[in-house]
C-alpha cells in the first residue's frame, strides 16, 4: 500500500484504503491499538454505520454485534472480524438493492 494515493487508485482500492483507515481511526483509543474494544466498536457503529444499523446506543445491540463478530472470544474485534462485519452489511445492502430493483421492474412492466 505504500505509494498508493487517491489520485491514482481505483475506486475499489480507495474503498479498501478507507476501510483500513476507518478501523484504525477507532482502534487503539483504549487497550490494544490493533483491535476494537466494546466501547470503540460502539463508537464506530454509531459514527460510521448509524444509517445502516439504526440506534447503536442500545447496549444489548452492541453486545450482540460484539458477540457475533468476536470469533476468537477475546472480548475485542480485530481487523479480520471488522472486515466480516462490513462484508456482511455490504451483502445485505446488495440483497436489499436487488430486491428493490426487482420490485421496481415489476411495477414498470405492469404499467406497459
TrEMBL record:
Protein's UniProt name: Protein S100
Q: Which UniProt keywords apply?
A: Calcium, Metal-binding, Repeat
Q: Which GO terms describe its cellular component?
A: cytoplasm
Highest taxon above the source species = Eukaryota
Give the EF-hand domain ranges: 57-92
Give this protein's Gene Ontology molecular function annotations: calcium ion binding; calcium-dependent protein binding; transition metal ion binding
Pfam entry (one): S_100
InterPro entries according to UniProt: EF-hand-dom_pair, EF_Hand_1_Ca_BS, EF_hand_dom, S-100_dom, S100/CaBP7/8-like_CS, S100_Ca-bd_sub
Cross-referenced PROSITE patterns: EF_HAND_1 (PS00018), EF_HAND_2 (PS50222), S100_CABP (PS00303)
